[in-house]
Amino acid sequence: MSEEQSPLRRGWTTGACAAAAAKAACAALLKGEFPDPVTITLPGGQTPAFALAGHDLAGQSASAAIVKDAGDDPDVTHGATIVSTVRRGMAGTGITFRAGPGVGTVTRPGLPMPPGEPAINPMPRKMIAAAIAEVAGEGGDFEVEISVPDGEAIATKTLNGRLGILGGISILGTTGIVIPYSCSAWIHSIHRGIDVALGAGLTHVAGATGSASEGAVQKHHGLPEVALIDMGDFVGGMLKYIRAHPVERVTVAGGVAKMTKLAQGMLDLHSKRGAADLDVLAATAEKLAPGSDAGHRIRTANTVAEAFSIAREGGVALGDAIAADAWKTAAGVLRNPGVQLEILVFDREGTLLGQSGFHPGDHESRPLKRR
Question: Does the reported pTM lie above 0.85?
Answer without folding.
Answer: no
